[in-house]
């Protein structure tokens, strides 16, 4: 959404970076990425804690595909760690 950090913008404009208004803007900026990561974590938890033979076969095939496609594993790990998307400057490094 924004190239510069919400907190950085607030500081440059002379706003109190800890004010509820600034923190609400930051929360809105990160809401989609946070909700996506939360949903993905829940799905993977349910998938990997289930002993259903069909689900087990599907997850084994999925893991094999991720390992077989060049770059897919790294992309998957970055996504799972929340390192993709429109990140704050300190996380983008």
Structure description:
This protein is mostly helical and 93 residues long. It has one domain (6-86). The chain has five helices and no strands.
Keywords:
mainly alpha; 5 helices; single chain
- Number of H- or I-type helical stretches: 5
Content-based structural category: mainly alpha
Uncertain runs with pLDDT below 50, 5 residues or more?
none
Strand and helix order? HHHHH
Write the layout of secondary structure elements.
Layout: H1 6-12, H2 20-48, H3 53-68, H4 72-80, H5 89-92
Short structural summary:
This protein has 93 residues and is mainly α. The protein is built from 5 helices and no strands.
